[in-house]
Each structure stands twice: as C-alpha cells, then as structure tokens.
C-alpha cells in the first residue's frame, strides 16, 4: 500500500473566513470555494489534515475548551458536506516548534499517519503557512492571498478552486 498523500490546510482565512481569533461556532463562515476544493482533493485520493496556529489560547482570548468546541463544530460542518477530515492539529503557543512558520505540526502529522510529504500539498493564506510546508518537505505549497508575492510558494491563488488543477489522480 502506498503512503498517504495529504492536502494540508490552514484553518482561519483558508477554511473559515478570518474574523480575528475565531472560536465561536456562530462566527463560522466558509471561505468560498474551499468545500469544492476539498471534495476534489478527496476524489483524487488525498487525505485532508488541518494544521492551525491558535495563539489566541496563550493570549487568553479563548480557552482550550473553547477551541475543542469549535473544532468539533468544524468537523460537523465538513461531515455535512461529505468531506472526511483525517486529523486536526493546533499550536496554542506563541513561541514553539509547532507554531508556523515552524514545521512541527506538519512533521507530527507525517509521523502519526505515514504521509508521503513530497507527494503532498498545502494551502494557507499567510506566508508562514507556505514556509512551514516547505520546511516540512511538503512537495507543493500554495498561498491563498491574491496579489501577495511569496517566492517560496508554488503558486499564489485567488480561490481554493484553483488548486483543483494541481491534484494528481492516485492509483
Ligand atoms: Mg490563516
């Protein structure tokens, strides 16, 4: 059996609209195109892993329990769309090896799930998301930030649906 290929997704600004330290389910709003992107990824044989900085926890804006409630809600939203999520990893700290642009969350996922990193993709809305993916050995790393110049990004996208053309069908 071949190793897993993964689409790594940032959360705020990539999956849900970034409303500044989101933790209330009532503030959840899909980023346009992300569900279609995820469905296409799954259809092409990729698993989906969410890797998210959540320094709002250390900053005291919300708690680990609040984060857990939102995460359970987020899993339900994906399930309602028929999109399976393999894992969701977060870093609550401001200075830590897991905080992007450091690659810790990606590496933890790789070890946990036996991921073929070079065959995997990442999508995030900040340069630090791309930099973390590159540092973790993810093959192609995309920035969802129209007009931003990021030399380490494979491409800068205007919409998550633009990622669909990069998926490679897996045997
Ligand atoms: Mg983000």
The low-confidence parts are none
CATH topology: Rossmann fold
The mean pLDDT is: 96
The helix count comes to 4
Tally of DSSP β-strands: 6
Order of the strands making up the biggest sheet: 3-2-1-4-5-6
Instruction: State Rg.
Output: 15 Å
Question: Could you provide a short overview of the structure?
Answer:
This protein is 27% helix and 16% strand.
Brief descriptors of the model:
six-stranded parallel beta sheet, 6 strands, alpha/beta
Describe this structure in words.
The protein has 171 residues and is α/β, with parallel strands linked by helices. It has one domain (6-166): HAD superfamily/HAD-like (Rossmann fold, 3-Layer(aba) Sandwich), CATH 3.40.50. It is built from four helices and six strands, in the order E-H-E-H-E-H-E-H-E-E. The chain has a six-stranded parallel β-sheet, with helices on both faces. It is globular, with a radius of gyration of 15 Å. The model has no long low-confidence stretch (mean pLDDT 96). It binds magnesium ion.
What's the SSE blueprint?
Blueprint: E1 6-9, H1 34-43, E2 47-53, H2 64-80, E3 87-91, H3 104-113, E4 121-124, H4 127-135, E5 140-144, E6 155-157
Parallel strand pairs: 1-2, 1-4, 2-3, 4-5, 5-6
The protein binds magnesium ion (MG).
């Amino acid at each position: 059996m071949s190793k897993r290929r993964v689409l790594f997704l940032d959360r705020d600004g990539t999956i849900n609209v970034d409303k500044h330290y989101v933790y209330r389910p009532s503030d959840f709003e899909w980023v346009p195109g992300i569900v279609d992107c995820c469905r296409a990824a799954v259809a092409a044989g990729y698993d989906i892993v969410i890797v998210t900085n959540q320094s709002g926890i250390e900053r005291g804006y919300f708690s680990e329990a609040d984060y857990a409630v939102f995460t359970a809600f987020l899993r339900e939203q994906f399930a309602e769309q028929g999109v399976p999520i393999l894992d969701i990893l977060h870093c609550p700290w401001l200075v830590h090896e897991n905080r992007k642009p450091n690659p810790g969350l990606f590496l933890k996922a790789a070890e946990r799930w036996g991921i073929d990193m070079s065959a995997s993709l990442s999508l995030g809305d900040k340069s630090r998301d791309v930099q973390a993916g590159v540092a973790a050995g993810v093959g192609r790393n995309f920035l969802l930030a129209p007009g931003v110049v990021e030399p380490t990004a494979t491409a800068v996208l205007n919409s998550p649906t633009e990622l669909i053309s990069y998926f490679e069908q897996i045997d």
